[in-house]
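Course exercise 7: structure representation. Students receive a sequence record and must write out the corresponding structure in token form. The form below is the worked example handed out in class, using PLMT protein (179 residues). Read each field label carefully; the graders check that inputs and outputs are placed in the correct fields and that the protein name is recorded exactly as given.

STUDENT ID: A-19
EXERCISE PROTEIN: PLMT protein
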Amino acid sequence: MALEVLLSGAACLPAALRARQLDTFDQFGSGDCLRSASWWLCLLGVSTNYFMHGFIWNYSKRFAALCEKPPLKLLGSHPVDVFASLEVVAKLVQACSVGTLLGQSGRSAALEAARTAPAWCWAVFAGLLAAGQALNAATYNAIGNAGVYYGFKLGRTVPWCSGFPFNTGLRHPQCLRRG
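STUDENT ANSWER:
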């Protein structure tokens, strides 16, 4: 747990430093921002994915039953496949939510900030992106969609995996299966 907190903090540090350079921290906590409907709609759009995860985790039988009927049945033949498809939709909703909040001027400013970011920001970004995607690919390779998308709760057999990346000391969903 401590390692995860440390890694999460390290991942946020470059963005936080850059946000401080651009004087954007104060804007997100300002009253104007908190009174903005677009801010709350963005928050809802970004958090919807987490509500979905909570629902599927806590009500997996109900989710499986919903997957037997349209429109969810159109997304896959098994609840795990439906969940995987919903993840793609959720990521699109998240991206659109942030893009809508930013508006044209905000998107232009974000692109300009990225274009003018110092080399160290790009180096840290590239390193963290590469490490994250390596872990992501290794996880899918080790346990497949069934392991990633709560297959053991949705009726699929998920073999226990103790090799990479599950031997790195980071928590993973399969830990919840151990008694």
